[in-house]
Amino acid sequence: MARNRPCGVCGKWFYPNARQGERQHTCGLAACKKEWHRRACAKWHDRNPGYDQHTRLVTRLVKDDPPEQRGRQPDPLNLIDWAIAKDEVGLKVAVLVEETGKVLLQVARDAIPA
After folding, report:
1. N or C: which terminus of the chain has fewer CB atoms within 10 Å of its end residue's CB?
2. How far does Cα 24 stand from its chain's mean position?
């Protein structure tokens, strides 16, 4: 059985739930749970600083409705909105990435027998 311990937020002593045991860090009040969650999220964002920016950029870059091609897989390079990519990283970098992607796609298609 878990021992009596102080809440990590308000400091009041409580007995942890038997199922949670040592993992329970708050007394169970809604305000304490909410504050503990806020702190945990802040720590996670401190450890992963570019996550939100990366997710927003990927969401903007990937097109929602790729063009349909009969009987063929869509060209992966057409799934990216290159205008947004050029705005974000600059013209030279976007062109370099796009052309590198075309070369890699051609090599992959040549390597796979029809």
Report:
1. C
2. 27
